[in-house]
Amino acid sequence: MQPASVDFLIRRGDSEAPQVGLRTEEPATFQRGNLLASGDIARWTLTVGSEDRTKTSEPNGGLVQDTDDPGLFSYPLTPAETAALAAGSYPFRIHVVRSDGGEFTPLVGNFIVS
User: What are phi and psi of 84, to 5 degrees?
Assistant: First the structure.
């Protein structure tokens, strides 16, 4: 299965929090569920030059999980972090590690900085 793709527009010097929904959908009923089960970990990695900057869904891992909708995750960026990025495109990927050790990448894309 190929990962889905999305791009986020980021403005230098702004506080940003790109958000994604990690969900499943039953094709026959269109019923949605959370992609992450108990014990699973999401890793959202942004590549800046040759450096990978990873935030995770683990406690104090940096990803923010929505309290009302646990399928939503945000990658918060401070004004200092966005100001330090030159204008351009920075790839990211979201990788899920299952509690049983299985792994997959459901989403890839770019932070496009202007």
Answer: -80, -10
Confidence at residue 26, expressed as pLDDT on a 0 to 100 scale = 67
Q: What is the DSSP string of the chain?
A: -PPEEEEEEE-TTS-B--EEE-EEE-TTT--EEESPPTT-EEEEEEEETTEEEEEESSTTSB-EE-SS-TTEEE--B-HHHHHTSPSEEEEEEEEEE-TTS-EEEEEEEEEEE-
The sign of the dihedral angle between the CA atoms of 35, 51, 9, 13 is positive
Joined together, the tokens standing for residue 83 give 């100001």
Residue type at position 61: G
Cβ-based neighbours of 50, under 8 Å, separated by 6 or more? none
What is the residue-wise DSSP string for 92-114? EEEEEE-TTS-EEEEEEEEEEE-
Please list the residues that pair with 24 across neighbouring strands: 33
pTM value is 0.85
Please give the structure tokens belonging to residue 70: 């646990």
In this predicted model, what pLDDT tens digit does every residue of 76-90 receive, in sequence order? 999 999 999 999 999
